[in-house]
Amino acid sequence: MARMKTDLCIIGAGSGGLSLAAGAVQMGARVVLVEGHRMGGDCLNYGCVPSKALLAAAKQAQTVREGGFGIAPVVPQVDYAAAMAHVQSAIATIAPHDSVERFEGLGVRVIQAWGRFLNDRELEAGGEVIRARRFVIATGSRPLLPPIPGLDQVPYLTNETLFDLRERPGHLLIIGGGPIGMEMAQANVRLGTKVTVIEGDRALNRDDPELAKIVLDRLRAEGVGIAEGAQATRVSGKAGAITVETGQGSFTGTHLLVAVGRTPALDRLNLAAACVETTRAGVKVGPDLRSTNRRVYAIGDAAGGLQFTHVAGYHAGVVIRPILLGLPASARTAHIPRVTYTDPELAQIGPTEAEARAEHGARLSVARFAFSGNDRAIATGQTDGLIKVMVVKGRPVGVSIAGAEAGELIGPWTLALANNLKMTHVANMVAPYPTLGEVNKRAAGAYFSPRLFENPWVKRVVRVVQRLLP
Ligand SMILES: Cc1cc2nc3c(=O)[nH]c(=O)nc-3n(C[C@H](O)[C@H](O)[C@H](O)COP(=O)(O)OP(=O)(O)OC[C@H]3O[C@@H](n4cnc5c(N)ncnc54)[C@H](O)[C@@H]3O)c2cc1C
Ligand SMILES: NC(=O)c1ccc[n+]([C@@H]2O[C@H](COP(=O)([O-])OP(=O)(O)OC[C@H]3O[C@@H](n4cnc5c(N)ncnc54)[C@H](O)[C@@H]3O)[C@@H](O)[C@H]2O)c1
């Protein structure tokens, strides 16, 4: 077997591995990148990109279907295969950016094979033994397949096969009402599929219930059936007629999508040989993302924390400091946002109201502003929405937004939380009129209004000054 030495060996060329490889090689390190399947990982091939591309096609169908503003609604003529062709075209357009050619052009040695540790300092991939000063496990995650009796006896879809469909499903059952389940429910219902979501708990249960309701009400109004408190206990049937049994009754559809979470992709790595310990969530790491083997780090979904592309990229930025420069660094989570790209969108940073109340008690103030008070939202018919800002000692600690463009609107708050800014900084901002972005400033205004307008001292001072002014 050929042998090579390198500074850094990264296993997995997804969101985390690619960011790290590009950064490390351009800063002068010798980098080997090992990828066993498709460059770009889950996000490009089976996750963010295809799901957002399908949602875009679905939004187009919905715009036509709803009409409005004096434009007559029309039943959309949906070509499901063409919508999926748009999905593939979005992937193909981005793929060169994540390609072997681009990374080899940057100076990265790319090995297209599965990597497997031989011992605590060596990994084998594609018949080569790589001895590296540091390793980074960036192998991501795969769909969790729950032990529901009968599931292994029926054909089912996951995010890895859903985008291969070319014929529109007649009735899509989705087990799991998390972000994957709800995004794909709306995409499919808008493209003309009958959809039923089967959720064991509350749909979108990680989000503030008041804001999740805004999204769920819209989905229900568009025709998505959402059974909550309906844990799937048995699956049976065959292609075209699949039945899911739950405590709330049984549901039969033509297709089944399983979207009940993720499991870390660590099984091919032979981690025991490298003395790298794991938990059910992923590689066991400290705040510095270092594993139980001090030469080995883990980033992204494999590190067992938040599972988002921007987190994988952020992790890459954290580990590059100790790996390349020997400097300390640790990962934080308080400033990490998340967005579910339903229409309306659901965005969150920091704790929800309930989480913040549990943590801060009476010190917490919650400022609210409804989209129905925003002129642009009224002009464009997008008044279903609400922003809540959780404030402690004059600083925002959490923000929840449900509404049009919530993912864009959370931007200024990500800046505020990352830099520990105060509500005054947000209130000082002048937002262009008329924009949806004014909801951010109005929420800051809602925080200051009672302090300014309902404060007897302010009134007294104004009266005195008015008497004294010439
Ligand atoms: C349907 C869906 C929609 C999503 N939408 C969003 C979104 O809108 N926004 C967002 O932020 N996140 C989204 N996510 C989550 C996001 O895709 C992941 O958090 C992100 O891809 C994680 O990046 P990663 O680098 O950790 O892993 P990945 O991108 O999964 O990359 C891991 C790579 O490692 C490779 N690999 C695994 N084992 C080995 C091995 N032994 N040897 C060599 N290679 C190996 C895999 O083949 C893969 O290419 C979505 C996920 C799904 C499933
Ligand atoms: N927009 C985004 O950023 C985005 C989009 C999709 C996915 N993702 C990432 O992917 C991760 C996985 O998403 P997900 O939606 O698969 O998982 P999830 O864990 O967020 O939601 C899964 C849901 O399935 C339910 N469930 C589990 N077992 C069940 C059963 N037997 N019967 C009925 N319901 C059951 C759970 O109660 C839960 O609500 C997310 O947490 C997120 O990190 C992000």
TrEMBL record:
Its cofactor is FAD. It comes from Rhodovulum euryhalinum. Residues 7-315 form the FAD/NAD(P)-binding domain. It comes from the Bacteria. NAD(+) binds at G176, G177, G178, P179, I180, G181, M182, E183, E199, G261. FAD binds at K52, G115, T139, G140, S141, D301. GO terms for molecular function: flavin adenine dinucleotide binding; NAD(P)H dehydrogenase (quinone) activity; oxidoreductase activity, acting on a sulfur group of donors, NAD(P) as acceptor. Pfam families: Pyr_redox_2, Pyr_redox_dim. This is Pyruvate/2-oxoglutarate dehydrogenase complex dihydrolipoamide dehydrogenase (E3) component. Keywords: Disulfide bond, FAD, Flavoprotein, NAD, NADP, Nucleotide-binding, Oxidoreductase, Pyruvate, Redox-active center.
